[in-house]
Design brief:
alpha/beta; 5 strands; single chain
């Protein structure tokens, strides 16, 4: 089963994402939670998640800095940005770190499902490639 990490400083976002997805149906555990980028980086080390939701505007370590460090250290993980800001600089950083998708708050259920499908396809492609190697 896939491991999921949700990093956002807003508790309602954690509750919404947990409620919007049937985690068992996509062969994933319910997300573990971190409430800032520093805590998220620590949890990356112990959890080694397959899918990571990350907010761009957080205390201690913001989403851009988190993505820079995490995407290098954990390239297998698939990153989905969730943000309250339709900001070009955030979107540009997300593209640079090859995120799966950039979702705006409030989270749209269909957009969330599509982002998860893309992440799962990438994970399965990586698994198939590793099997062949």
């Amino acid at each position: 089963m896939y491991k999921v990490l949700l990093i956002d400083d807003e508790k309602p976002v954690h509750l919404a994402i947990r409620a919007l997805v049937d985690w068992m149906a996509i062969d994933a555990f319910e997300p573990e939670s971190a409430y800032n980028g520093r805590e998220g980086l620590q949890m990356m080390e112990t959890l080694r998640p397959d899918i990571v939701f990350v907010d761009m505007s957080m205390p201690l370590v913001d989403g851009r800095d988190f993505l820079e460090e995490a995407s290098e250290a954990y390239p297998h993980s698939q990153y989905i940005v969730i943000s309250g800001f339709d900001d070009f600089q955030y979107a540009r950083a997300a593209i640079r770190f090859n995120v799966v998708d950039y979702l705006l708050k409030p989270i749209d259920h269909q957009e969330l499902e599509m982002a998860l499908k893309k992440a799962l396809l990438r994970l399965k492609a990586d698994e198939a490639q590793q099997t062949r190697a």
